[in-house]
Design goal:
Chain lengths: 333, 400
Amino acid sequence: MQAHDLNQTSLNVVRMADSRPNYLPWGMALAVCAAAPFFIYPVFAMELMCFALFACAFNLLLGFGGLLSFGHACFFGGAAYLSGHALKVWGLTPELGILFATAGAAVLGLLIGLVAIRRQGIYFAMVTLALAQIVFFACLQLPMTGGEDGLQGIPKGRLLGLIDLSATVSIGGQQLPLALYFFVLAITFGGYWLIWRTVNSPFGVALKAIRENEARALSLGYRVDRYKLAAFVMSAALAGLAGATKALVVGLASLTDVSWHMSGEVVLMTLLGGMGTLLGPVVGAVTVVSLHHELSSLGSWVTVTIGSIFVLCVLAFRRGIVGEIAHRLKKTF
Amino acid sequence: MQARRKQLALALALALPGLAVAGPISDDVVKIGILTDMSGVYAGVGGKGSVIAAEMAIADFGGKVAGKPIQVVSADHQNKADIGAGKAREWFDTQGVDMINDLLNSGVGIAVQKLGAEKKRITINNGAGSTALTGKECSPYGIHYAYDTYALAKGTATALMKQGMDSWYFLQADYAFGQALQGDAAKIVQALGGKVAGTVKHPLSSTDFSSYLLQAQSSGAKVVGLANAGGDFVNAVKQAKEFGLKQTIVGLLVFDSDVKALGLNAAQGMKFTTAYSWELNPEMEAFGKKFFAKAGFMPTMDHAGVYSSTMHYLNAIKATGTDDADAVMKKMRETPVNDFFAKKGVIREDGRFVHDMYLVEVLKPSESKGQWDQLKLVATIPGEQAFKPLSASECALVKK
């Protein structure tokens, strides 16, 4: 028995070391998400997924790169406008529109990242905030964005020119937009998988090393700036992917998505869920967005409630929801 | 076999409620959604007052229409178009809401009106001012009820031009709304032979207006037109007072709540256009006092519009016996509105509700008889002159 246990443990160690993926949680998560539209309101579920992806993208930078960006809304909201414009004015198919917007966010991320990564800590946060505000004012003034009215009436279009994303399936007297739902589900899981692969790759390990001790990573010969820039661009692109998908889901892009409130919101989601854990931002996003949704009839109590939860989080469980659970169970998620 | 049959029964049971709704009144209840700003900058203009106005309309109607109860649901859109549209979509999809009223914020208003067109549900805008709602974004199921920026700019500019105030200088909030407001007013001033001495743009949510006000002062124009709203407007007026600006100051979008925030001392003598104020005539006063008894404050034109339009909607359901959007909309267009809010008011094909507007002046502190007594009527602007003519409409539904 003893020997068997030992064997098992060493096997586990080997498994961890080459981090061969365990697909069981993936399967379970996929099953839950696939069943979700039959139990909760599908449009809301899609919005949750978009925000979850956004928070995960942000966490890639903050949790694994140690860089606190305070301007991520400009990638999220900027891409929402880009995909909206591509779908509405140019009439691109949804997948091309989203790809275009994601590429746009990546370019924007490259430009902002080149300037921002030269500084650290609070200065980094301030530089990203300032540059994101420039993007905000561009969105406010450019004729293509519709100013404070937002870019409205974005068509869903046909996926690959074949599948009508605005089509609904009638089940139990409810019209469920299943085509769109599974498209969004695929995007979210694709994005999440990419983040998961990145974090567990040599690149991710180097990134964590830089987070822990930048000077030492530098002395070991890593080109720290390039790693940071790559992480920044990737995070921006994935945030853009989330924003572009959200614009497709809700059919509009508005200033809300580019304003600094949104940048703050994503910080909140990540910290609440658990910074530096893969699952944390998802939990955080679901919590924050659900609270916003459920409490919307209570008026200003939304802000009070979310503020109190944040204070509680900082005081009582600083690792965030998932971080705290993981710490108690001594596991990583 | 047994299991299969059970499954089938379950599936049927789940599907049936969906089939059973086909009747004159869907879901056996008429549900009205009030989507408004409950916590932000416009909460005083709409907010819980709009919910009270809708509840009053339902109570006055008798609580039932076509033998079915009437319900109100409300939510805060937080001035975010995506939250507003998300809530409206959920209301339509899962809660059987038949009509959404108030909206209050052009971004939310346009988004929800578009959604209403997609889902075939009636949406009534009272709080939002953008002319796009009945212009290029117009919808066969959308009504723009209380006012719009064109009517406000036109009413005020025309009235002042008549008094010989023929040179204008504009302070404009630097975004699409300010631009629209300034553009409409400037066009009217020029069309009537007046002169626009200049325009200065200020960023949204400015705190310091001194340099803009000095430019306005040195322009020598008789009128300083403020093409901004809310906090910007209040700040600009207060600072103009402190600078001792001698020119006539007019606000192109003013709510009663702004006057309240400014106080009569700072706002006295200012002229603006509105759709409702309780001081204007006895009928309006009666509604105002009734509302005051419930809410503890006097209604704004937004609140009055919510009451009047909800009443009109319920009357149309009563007349047709159904809450089907097409039938109700047709009836609402056919029937003129005659109540405290509008006389012979009609809904045009672009969705614009045409009714008289009023040019008002803020009282001097010595003239006021109480804390809610703040305005006096200067002139009534007939509906057909107040609103943008159909011939100039950008709406695709208008046949020319």
